[in-house]
């Protein structure tokens, strides 16, 4: 969640913070989103399996 939310936060506030070296965060955001979705799927899988 930190990769997804953190990168979105930094990208949206880079002009306010005067940080120009954040172009590397563009490719990290979708990867973080994928991990976020996989985490939800694994949580649902474990919840269903434990019943």
Your description of this structure?
With 51 residues, the chain is mainly alpha-helical. It has one domain (2-15, 28-49). Helix content is 80%, strand content 0%. The protein contains 2 helices and no strands. α1 runs antiparallel to α2.
Question: Which terms would index this structure?
Answer:
single chain; 51 residues; mainly alpha
Would you kindly provide a brief summary of this structure?
The chain is mainly α. It contains two helices and no strands. It has helices at residues 2-17, 25-49.
Question: What level of helicity do the residues show?
Answer: over 70%
Mean pLDDT: 86
- Helical segment count: 2
Query: Which residues form runs of ≥5 with pLDDT under 50?
Result: none
The strand count comes to 0
- Determine the strand fraction and express it as a percent band: under 5%
Query: Which descriptor suits the 3D outline?
Result: elongated
SS-derived structural category:
mainly alpha
Report on the biggest sheet. Answer: none
Rounded to the nearest angstrom, the radius of gyration is 15 Å
Number of domains: 1
Distance between the termini: 26 Å
Q: Which H/E pattern describes the elements?
A: HH
């Amino acid at each position: 969640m930190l990769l997804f939310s953190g990168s979105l936060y930094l990208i949206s506030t880079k002009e306010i913070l005067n940080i120009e070296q954040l172009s590397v965060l563009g490719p990290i955001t979708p990867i973080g989103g994928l991990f976020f979705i996989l985490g939800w799927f694994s949580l649902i899988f474990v919840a269903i399996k434990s019943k």
